[in-house]
Amino acid sequence: MSYVDQVIEEVIAKNPAEPEFHQAVREVLESLRVVVEANEEQYKKDALLERLVNPERQFKFRVPWVDDNGQVHVNTGYRVQFNSAIGPYKGGLRLHPSVNLGIIKFLGFEQIFKNSLTGLPIGGGKGGSDFDPKGKSDREIMAFCQSFMTELCKYIGADTDVPAGDIGTGAREIGYMFGQYKRIRGLYEGVLTGKGLSYGGSLVRTEATGYGLLYLTDEMLKCNGKSLEGATVVVSGAGNVAIYATEKAQQLGAKVVTCSDSTGWIYDKDGIDVALLKEVKEVKRARLTEYAAARPSAEYHEGKGVWTIPCDVALPCATQNELDLDDAKTLVANGCFAVAEGANMPTTMEATEYLQENGVLFAPGKAANAGGVATSALEMSQNSERLSWTFEEVDSKLKNIMVNIFHNLDDAAKRYGMEGNYVAGANIAGFEKVVDAMNAQGIV
Ligand SMILES: NC(=O)C1=CN([C@@H]2O[C@H](COP(=O)(O)OP(=O)(O)OC[C@H]3O[C@@H](n4cnc5c(N)ncnc54)[C@H](O)[C@@H]3O)[C@@H](O)[C@H]2O)C=CC1
Ligand SMILES: O=C(O)CCC(=O)C(=O)O
Fold it and tell me: For 90-105, what is each residue's pLDDT tens digit?
């Protein structure tokens, strides 16, 4: 059995009931096969892959909090510190009822390679809780965040592990967590990113993941003789990534006609009204039915369905495994020529393979959505030098980073004879830097 197959088998045996983690490991290791085979003897002797797929450390803890009626609830908190070869652990905190250890491990594993691709000194980590922020009052959110940070603050710090937002964790939650960290540790430091501008946040962090997705997509299209100008784009999700992806796509001349949330989706033939979407989702925290009620050109549908709308470019920006093989077949049949992942692992492996086999340009999340964490690293730099950069300064750095990421993965794919396979290119380019640092630091 090959070394790669052996490690995949071990991961499945040692981490049962963690299908998302298995999927992430399989996707990465399968595309590293060619690199591993070229160095198999040494990697095996050093147990390099085993060290890569086992987190350096993981925490699981109780999070008790009191609701507005005096009822006590207990959620589970997680932080997985996966790999610190190239910098302090860095990665978001997901608050969603579906969260479990396997989901946090899949996200933390992906984060290692993504963070490496940014070219910035950040290692991989991820955390979160099965707490559901939906329908909670601000006081309940604060109670949860304070309790969560009361435990988490023992394991994080500006130079050790720097969490940020993810699904369900936005500026409000980061603010409550930052306040509690400062109160307990007595440190005013850049321990979290995605902070508000009045207390150490960076301009562009809010927009960064969505804008970065479009900067990379734009570069990928240009290098393949295509353009966003006049293109019809379908987006899934209606959260942070989806909103700013829609905004930038429209600024680049595309027409975005869909968005979705966990209960339904919108088809807006005149193009999504971003100001209205922000009002509904960011200010009112309401359902998409409110968007449809205020917009005559929009249709609201229950359930899942954005991939049925004919498009040139598809941008999945909601959650993992939201675009499956049937969806991929529909996209291809409707003439879609590019898919770029705003979310983490939104496309199943079968769907990814189908899209690639049918000539669809495919940008994987660990490259395409790296603009968020890259801008978080820029926030860390600003915090360290106690300065704030202008919007234009941060935005231009973000754009350069995304364009460089695309060329790095394009080059890596070409070096290994897989031209145009950006999944392999991203995994190889991300892996090379991490492995170099791991080798230099000895067996740790
Ligand atoms: N916020 C960030 O900077 C980054 C986020 N990501 C990824 O992007 C994706 C979206 O994250 P955000 O926009 O930050 O979160 P968010 O909480 O702002 O929005 C998430 C959106 O996805 C929808 N959604 C969540 N779970 C769903 C489900 N099970 N079925 C259907 N829709 C669902 C929600 O209704 C919401 O519209 C996630 O995969 C996240 O890991 C990746 C890189 C950075
Ligand atoms: O900005 C960060 O540190 C977190 C970003 C993140 O969680 C992600 O890239 O998935």
Answer: 999 999 999 999 999 9
Give the tens place of pLDDT for each residue, 220-265.
Answer: 999 999 999 999 999 999 999 999 999 999 999 999 999 999 999 9
Q: How far is the CA of 40 from the centre of ligand 2 (A)?
A: 32
Q: Is 246 in a helix, a strand, or coil?
A: helix
Q: Report the Cα 155 to chain-centroid distance in Å.
A: 22
For 370, the 3-state DSSP assignment is coil
Which one is catalytic: 44, 45, 126, 154?
Answer: 126
Task: Quote the CA–CA distance of 395 and 398 in Å, as a whole number.
Answer: 5
**Residue with the two structure tokens 């290791």:** 29
Is 94 within 8 Å of 103 (Cβ atoms)? Answer: yes
Tokens of 44: 């095996």
- The CATH fold assigned to 56-189 is Rossmann fold (3.40.50)
**Token output for 312:** 């040139």
Task: Tell me whether residue 376 is annotated as binding.
Answer: yes
Dihedrals phi, psi of 412, to nearest 5 degrees = -60, -40
**C-beta 239 within 6 A of ligand 1:** yes
């150490």: which residue's tokens? 200
Question: Could you give the residue ranges of the DSSP H alpha helices within 223-267?
Answer: 240-251
For residues 356 and 426, the answer to whether their CB atoms sit within 8 Å is no
The matching CATH number, chosen from 3.40.1710.10, 3.40.50.2000, 3.40.50.880, 3.40.50.720, for 206-368 is 3.40.50.720
Is 240 annotated to bind a ligand? Reply is: yes
pTM for the whole structure:
0.98
Q: How many helices (H) and strands (E) would you count in the chain?
A: 17, 13
pLDDT tens digits, 163-190: 999 999 999 999 999 999 999 999 999 9
Asked if 82 and 158 touch (Cβ cutoff 8 Å), the reply is no
Ligand 1 within 6 A of CB of 168:
yes
Helical spans, DSSP H, in 118-235: 138-152, 171-185, 205-222
